[in-house]
Write a structure and sequence with these properties.
352 residues; alpha/beta; Peroxisomal Thiolase, Chain A, domain 1; 35% helix
Length: 352
C-alpha cells in the first residue's frame, strides 16, 4: 500500500478505532459431495408429484449451477473445526495460544449449549467460547466482536469459525408452485466451513473501518421460523421461507449508502481495494450490486455459480480462495460488504 494511501487509512483510524487487529489465516472447508442444480430439481420433482417445476429454473434464475452438501453425519461444528485447523496452521499459531473462540454462523448443531463448545472439543483449544448469530452477517459480526475484545486488552488471538449447513433447510417436497416459489431461496444454498484468526497488531495494519446498519422493519420477509418460542416444534417450520421479490425490493430501498459512506469517510476509492468481498445470493443480485455501487465485476471473488449461497461462510470463503489464487496478498486493501436477513448490513475495510 502506498504512503499516501496509508496516511488516509491512519486518518480513518483516528476517526474510529486505531487499527489494533488484523485478520490472518483465512481458511475454507468444503464437504466432499457436490449436488448440481439439475439433480436438486429432479429430487424436488420426485418428492412433489403433480407440481410443475420448470427445467433449469435454479440455474436460470439464480446462476447457481452446483453446491457442496455436507454428509448426513457431518455437523456445522465439523465444518467449522476443519476450517479452523487450517486457519491456525496458516497463521502459525498453536491451539494453546488461542485466547477465545467465536462460532459465528446462521447454522448451529443444536439450540443449547453454544455450538462453539463442540467446535472447541473437536479442535482441541482450551479457551472461553461463545456463539454469535446474525444470519448471513454472523461471521462479519464475529470479526467485529473479536476486534473489540482485542482493542479492550482482554485477548490477543481470537479465532472466528463458521460452519454453515443451510442445505438442511431445503424443502424437497412442495405443495404447489407457490410453495416452490417461497422455498426457492433454499435451492440456492450450499454448505461450507470457514475460519480466520483475528490477532492484535502494533503496525497499524489490519481493520481500519467498520460500520453496521440494521433495518428491522424487514425482519419477516426472509425467515427460518422454527426452533424458537414462535414455533418450538414441527418440521414444517425448519425451512427457509422468503419472497425473493420482496427481499430484493427491500435491499434496493435501503440502497448502497453504507458502502459509499465507508469510502468517503476513509478517503479511499473502489480502485484502492484489491478485492471486494460481498455476500452472494444470486448472479442478478451481484450485477445489481456492481451497478449501484460502481464496483467493477472484476473486483469481486465470484463463488456463487459453483458453491451457492453459503450464508455467513460466503465472504471468508471468498478471501481464502482469493489468497490461494494470489489475487490478494499481504499489504492489499480488502473491503467486506455484508448483507443478511433482518435486514442487516455491514461494511468492514482492512489491510491484509
Amino acid at each position: 500500500m502506498g504512503v499516501a494511501l496509508r496516511e488516509l487509512v491512519r486518518s480513518a483510524n483516528d476517526r474510529q478505532l486505531e487499527g489494533v487487529a488484523r485478520l490472518r489465516g483465512a481458511a475454507v472447508y468444503l464437504p466432499a459431495a457436490v449436488l448440481s442444480s439439475e439433480d436438486l430439481e429432479a429430487r424436488v420433482r420426485a418428492e412433489s408429484p403433480g407440481v410443475h417445476i420448470p427445467s433449469h429454473a435454479v440455474r436460470r434464475i439464480s446462476g447457481v449451477k452446483s453446491r457442496h452438501i455436507a454428509a448426513d453425519d457431518e455437523q456445522t461444528s465439523d465444518l467449522a473445526a476443519a476450517a479452523a485447523r487450517v486457519s491456525l496452521a496458516r497463521a502459525d499459531v498453536d491451539r494453546k495460544d488461542v485466547d477465545a473462540l467465536i462460532f459465528a454462523a446462521a447454522s448451529q448443531d443444536l439450540t443449547e449449549p453454544a455450538t462453539a463448545n463442540i467446535v472447541q472439543e473437536k479442535l482441541g483449544t482450551t479457551c472461553p467460547v461463545f456463539d454469535i448469530k446474525n444470519a448471513c452477517n454472523s461471521f462479519l459480526c464475529g470479526v467485529q466482536v473479536a476486534e473489540s475484545l482485542i482493542a479492550s486488552g482482554q485477548y490477543r488471538n481470537v479465532l472466528v469459525a463458521s460452519g454453515e449447513i443451510p442445505s438442511r433447510g431445503i424443502k424437497w417436497s412442495v405443495r404447489d408452485f407457490a410453495d416452490f416459489r417461497l422455498s426457492f431461496a433454499g435451492y440456492t444454498l450450499g454448505d461450507a466451513g470457514a475460519a480466520a484468526l483475528v490477532s492484535g497488531t502494533d503496525d497499524h495494519r489490519g481493520i481500519f473501518y467498520r460500520k453496521f446498519q440494521t433495518e428491522s422493519r424487514y425482519w419477516n420477509i426472509g425467515t427460518v421460523p422454527g426452533g424458537g418460542s414462535m414455533h418450538p416444534r414441527g418440521d414444517e417450520w425448519t425451512y427457509f421461507i422468503g419472497d425473493g421479490t420482496r427481499i430484493g425490493a427491500a435491499v434496493a430501498s435501503i440502497g448502497p449508502g453504507i458502502f459509499h459512506d465507508a469510502l468517503r469517510e476513509t478517503g479511499t476509492t473502489i480502485h484502492d481495494y484489491a478485492r471486494v468481498l460481498v455476500h452472494q445470493v444470486t448472479m442478478p443480485f451481484l450485477k445489481d450490486f456492481c451497478a449501484t455501487t460502481g464496483v467493477p465485476l472484476s473486483k469481486l471473488v465470484i463463488t456463487l455459480p459453483t458453491l451457492g449461497n453459503m450464508a455467513s461462510a460466503s465472504m471468508p470463503v471468498q478471501l481464502a480462495l482469493a489468497e490461494a489464487r494470489g489475487e490478494v496478498r499481504s499489504g492489499d486493501l480488502v473491503a467486506w460488504v455484508g448483507m443478511a436477513s433482518g435486514i442487516s448490513l455491514g461494511v468492514m475495510l482492512m489491510e491484509l
